[in-house]
Amino acid sequence: MTAVVSALRIGDTAPDFEAETTEGRIRFHQWIGDSWAVLFSHPKDFTPVCTTELGYMAKLKPDFDKRNVKVIGLSVDPVESHARWANDIKETQGYAPNYPMIGDPKLEVSKAYGMLPADLTGSCEGRTPADNQTVRNVYVIGPDKKIKLMIAYPMTTGRNFDEVLRVIDSLQLTAKHKVSTPVNWRQGDDVIIAGSVSDEEAKKAYPQGWKAPRPYLRIVPQPRS
Questions:
Q1: Do the strands 24-27 and 137-141 form a parallel or antiparallel pair, or are they unpaired?
Q2: Which of 144, 162, 189, 199 is catalytic?
């Protein structure tokens, strides 16, 4: 797979844009509002791996809703094509997309996010999935419109949206509390006191103390409030 060349980094402001979607025209930042958002992209409609992904994301949408996370998909084809594809997704996966799908036939959003070269000419017409194989990214964006997570996938590997939910749980927890989450952390597991917190500050926040196998590794139960 050709590597995704992108100037975007975690912490950057997600590019704003206007686009047609299956639920009407949106301005992206305005659409996000005070919520979190997941933007996930696809190289072409009627592609097999993406069909399974769009259906599974629809199944998981209530879990994103509970976390105040809006979901939006993108595919380089026009909105009219997305609507036809939705029928296939419902029939084969059991769930039709219940979130907006962006039409990007002029490739403008894909270019803005660095998924395709900025100097690329033309439209989606005549382009194959392989031509657009780098349009396979997931972005998690915070209410501050900053990019919190970026993952790029190859065309042959379906995405793990359960992992995206896990990361969002971590992002929302660590945004509220001065903690970090360890490897394979899940909701309810112990967390790590952030390195930016001194021992004196930590004693006030965690008067019950903490486990410290090393001075820089201070482990406490997950904050509940």
A1: unpaired
A2: 144
